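Hi,

Apologies if this is the wrong queue. I'm a grad student, and the batch job for protein-glutamate O-methyltransferase from Azospirillum endophyticum produced an output file that my downstream script rejects. I'm not sure whether the problem is my script or the file. Here is the sequence I used:
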Amino acid sequence: MMTKKTDDPDSDFTNLIRHIQESRGIDFRGYKRTSLERRIRRRMEEVSCDSFAAYHAFLEAHPQEFIDLLNTVLINVTSFFRDNEAWDVLRREVVPRILERKGDKGPIRIWSVGCASGEEPYSLAMMFAEALGTTEFCRRVKIYATDLDDAALNTARHATYAARDVETVPEPLLERYFERTNNHYVFQRELRKCVIFGRHNVVSDAPISRIDLLVCRNLLIYLEADTQGIVLPRLHYALVNDGFLFLGKAETQLARSRMFEAVDLKSRIFSKVPQEWRRTAGGSLSLANDANGARTNTQARLLESIVDNSSAGYLAVNAEGLLIFANTHARRLFDVEESDIGRPFHDLTISYRPTELRSRIEEVRNSGRMIRIEHQPFTRTGSEPARLTIEVAPLYSRDGKAFATLLTFFDTSRVFLLQQEIEAAQESLETTIEELQSSNEELETTNEELQSTNEELETTNEELQSTNEELETMNEELRSTNEELEVANEEMRRQSEEAGEYRRYSESILRSIDVGIIVLDDNFIVQSWNRWSENVWGLRNEEVTGEAFLDLDIGLPVQRLRRQLQDTLKTEAPVELVEMDAMDRRGRRITCRIRLSPLLYDNRAARGVVLIIEDVTERVRSDAFAEYLGRIIGQSLNEVYFLDPATFSFQLVNKGAELKLGYSLEALRQIALHDLMPDINAAAFSRLIGPLLSGEKAEIVFETTIERPDQTLRPVEICMQYFAEEQPPILVAMAHDVTERQHIGLDDSRAEPVSG
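Support response: The file is valid. Your script probably expects a header line. Output copied below for reference.
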C-alpha cells in the first residue's frame, strides 16, 4: 500500500499513530493528516490531555479509551435511509436494473463499506426485500457489511435499536421488518441472517469481489489523495461489469474518472465502466472480470504474482499500437498509470525514452525476430542514472500469428559499469603490459569471470523466457479445464433444480390427495406422512418421520396391521383391502379402508410398504341404509316392478308383486307387462309410455286391469318412472290394487270401500 509521509518518524504524533496501529491493528496512515489530527485533539480535550505524548501515555494507562477514540476518529454517524431522496433514486433506478440483469434466479451480492452500527446494510436489506419478497431475498441476496470499529460491528450484529434510531424508517417498513420489544426495535431475524458483518480495511485488505451494488458513503472524503487513488481501483475491481457504486453527498469529484460513469450525479450514484484490462487486488493489471464476476484460479494468480514480482519490466503493445499490459516494475520505472492502459503507445513518453522504440516495434513485426538494444542510458528524477537493456520480441497465439509485441527492460547498469571498467583496464594494460604483467593476468581472470557471469545471465534470461512460455501454455490448459468444470457445474445445478422441482411436485400431489398416504421402509419406519394423515391423526410429518409405525399412538389400531405389513414385504404384492374402525383426532369414530402395496424401486426387491387409508364411514353408512331400504321394499306388499325399457319385460319384482300377480320371478322374466293387460296391446302400451321414455314427462299414472293366472281380473293403478341415468337404464312401475280402495272425506268419519 502506498503511504504518505505526514510527519517526522520520531514525532509524538507519528508515535501515537504507530501505537494505535500496533495495539488495535488499525492503519490511519492513509487518512488526511489535518482531519485525523483535528479529531484526535477533540478527544484529547475531553480527557484533558494537552499534548500527543500525554495522550499516548493516557492510552497506555486506560485501554478502554480506545473505544471512545475510534468512535471519534472513525465518525460512526449513520441512520436508516440517510439522505432519503438518494435512496429513492437507488430504489427506482438501480434496483430494477440489478434484478433485470440477474434474472429470476441469479445471486445478488451487495457490499456496505464503513457500515458503522448497521443502519445502512439493514436499509439495503429492506429495499431489496420489498422488491423480491422475503423468501426470494433470503434465497438470493448476500449483503457484506464491513467496518474498522469492532464495537460498532458488535452493535450492528445485535440488530437492536432504540426508538429514536428508527425514526427515519417509514411506518410500513417498521411494522413489517422490526419487532417491538420493550423500548427497543429488533430487526427481522430472517433478513438479519443474510447480512454478514466483518472487520475490513478498504485501504489495505483485499476487496470483496463480484459485487453488484457497492455502498461507500462519506468515507473517501477523509482519505489522502494518494490513498483515494488506491481505494477507487479496489472499488472498481470489486464490482462486476455494470455494477453500481453509491457514494455520499460530498464525494462527487472522487468518482469522476474513466473507471465510473454517473447514473444520477445529484444522488452520487455511479456505474462501473468495464475495461479490457484492469488492476488486480495485488496491484498489477490483468483481464477484467466477466458479467458474473468470475476470477482466475490459483495457478493464474501464481503466474500474475511471478510477473509482478519479476525484476524485469514488461510492456505489451497490441497490433493496433495500443499499450495493453504493464507489470508492476514497468509501471514504477516509467510512471505508467492505469489510465495509460489502452492508449496509443506512440503518445507515451516510454515510446521514445530511453530510446526510440516505435520503429523497433515495427521492425520486429515485419521480421518476426527479436531485437536486443543494449545499455541505453535512462535517468529518473531523484534517482541515480541507470542503463537499460531492452528486448523487443513478437508474441504469437496458438495459430502462429503474432498478436502483440512484448518489450522487456533489464537493469544492466552493473554489467555496463563492469564492461567500462574492463575496457579501461584493457587500455591501461596495453600501455603498461610489460611493467604490470602480473596485474594483467589478474584482470584477464576477472574478465573471464565477468564474461561467465554475463553468459549465465543470458542463460537465465532464456530459461525465464522458456518458463514464461510454459506458464502461458499451462494457463491455456487450465482455462480450458475451468471451462469444462463450469459446464459440468452448470449441468449439476440444472439437475439439482430439476430434482428439487420434482420433489416439490411430488409433495404437492401427496398434499392434494384426499386420502391418507403413509410410506414405510423395510423396518416399518415412517418415511412420509401426508397432510390427510396429519389432519386425521393429529401428528405432524416431522413428529412421526423416523418413528416406528407400529409404535405410534394414534386412533388407528396399527398393531392389527403387523401381519399384513409382513405379508406385503414377503410377497412383494398388494394384499387384500382391510377395513378397520378407528377414531380421529377429534374423537369421531370412523371406518377406514386400508390398501397395502409394496414400495418397489426399478422392479427390484421391495424396500418398504405404502399404506393408502381412505375414510369410508359415510359410504359404509350409505351402503347399509341402501341395503336396509332394499329389504323393506323387497318385503313390502306394494307391487314394485323393474322393467326393461325396450321390451317392457320384467327384470325384477318384489315379494308383494309375486304374491299379487300370481307368478314366480322366473316366470315373470318371460312376460312383458302389457301381456298381463287384456285390454291393451303392445303398440298402445308403447305409445302410452313414449313421453316417459323421451323425457317429456317425469312420470305416468294410469289405471288398467291385470289378469292373474286363474284368469281373474283385478283393477290396478300404475305409476311409472324412467331412470335413464342408471346403467343400464331401468323402467320402474309401482302398482296399487284399487279393488278395495277407500276414500276419506272431511264430512265423513268413516272410510267406505270404493268399487273399482
